[in-house]
Design brief:
about 110 residues; mainly beta; SH3 type barrels
Length: about 110
C-alpha cells in the first residue's frame, strides 16, 4: 500500500518549491516519483504542427515534472501541516465474512486519511 496516492494533498519539503502545496496528479511507483500540481514547473518546446482541423499546435508549454517522493509530505487533514503516514488494521464484517483492511492514518493528529 502506497503512502502517497493520486489525489492526495501534499506539501513540498525540499527543493526550490519548498513550502508549496498541491494535489498529486500522477504516481510512478517504479521510479519513486510523483507529479504535483503547480510544483516543479518546466518549459517544454513543442514542435509546430497542424491538427486535422487546420489549427496550429506547438510552441512553448509549461508542464509539471516529476519530483521524488521523499521530497513531499502528506498534508494532515486537521492541522493543514505536513505529516507522516501510518497504518491501522481494522476488522470489517460484511455478509458474515470478516476482512482485514489497512487504513492510512496521519501520525500528527491520528485522523484517517481518505
Amino acid at each position: 500500500m502506497a503512502k502517497i496516492k493520486k489525489g492526495d494533498l501534499v506539501v513540498v519539503i525540499a527543493g526550490r518549491d519548498r513550502g508549496k502545496q498541491g494535489r498529486v496528479l500522477e504516481v510512478f511507483p517504479e521510479k519513486q516519483r510523483v507529479v504535483v500540481e503547480g510544483v516543479q514547473r518546466m518549459t517544454k518546446h513543442v514542435k509546430a504542427g497542424r491538427t486535422t482541423r487546420g489549427t496550429r499546435t506547438g510552441g512553448i508549454e509549461t508542464i509539471e515534472a516529476p519530483i521524488h517522493v521523499s521530497n513531499v509530505m502528506l498534508v494532515d487533514p486537521e492541522t493543514k501541516k505536513g505529516t507522516r503516514v501510518g497504518y491501522r488494521t481494522e476488522e470489517i464484517e460484511r455478509d458474515g465474512r470478516t476482512r482485514t483492511v489497512r487504513v492510512r492514518v496521519a501520525k500528527r493528529s491520528g485522523k484517517d486519511i481518505a
